Amino acid sequence: MTPNLRSTATAGLLAGKVVLVTGAASGIGAAAARAAAHEGAKVVLADRNAPGVEEIATHLAKSGAEVLAVTVDVSDAQSVAAMVASVAKAFGRLDAAFNNAGIGTLETRAVGNRAGDLEEDSWRRMLDVNLTGVWLCMKHEIAVMARGAAIVNMASIAGLIGLPRAAHYTAAKHGVVGLTKAAAIDYADLGIRINAICPGFVETPLTATSKAEKRAASVAKTPIGRYATAEEIAAQAIWLMSDRSGYVTGAAIAVDGGYTAA
Length: 262
Prior knowledge:
By secondary structure, the chain is of the alpha/beta class. Helix content is 40%, strand content 15%. Its EC number is 1.1.1.-.
């Protein structure tokens, strides 16, 4: 999809910035793309689900946003390089990125497995997408960023604590938190801020399929007493990509309704 060249909003937290959102076809990514457009950004929506990301991009373009939709597999280095090259060709720069794309235990066919019962292909797939994918995105995004740019990586409460029967997911998200902290130090002198958000339980198409008893158990452990909306998580990413968070880097921020505080 070629960029819609109609003018964007002149006011907003991300006014005039070029923002990339991966995993933008649904859930938190879609909510973040919409919020970024609302805040005045030129938005690049990326996802492996080409029809899904095109649909959302078309909707945003009709509302007057300047958008570009691209297809990407974040676990593939060439695909990620092509994504960032498309951003640079269309807009000439990249000001902020939300590396949100990821998979859960359902997508690795490893629901309920203990650490030692995981199959090697499930382990590798989880780390390839959820950890290596974040690193690949950062690697290519930073190459086209200038001072003042910001990156937000999607971690999880599983990056702060251990989740039972999800060793590969927990390992990947702990890796994202560590990667974020190390990279934030590496690029602080270049004026590029890098942070991670660590959501708890969120209402998304994926979690909507969870069994009622599992949802009830999750809510019972969350002091606020409910799942988050995708928009609430996206709002944290928007703030971290904006200049309002100019002194925040290397942080892994829990957005979990108090789950990890309890």
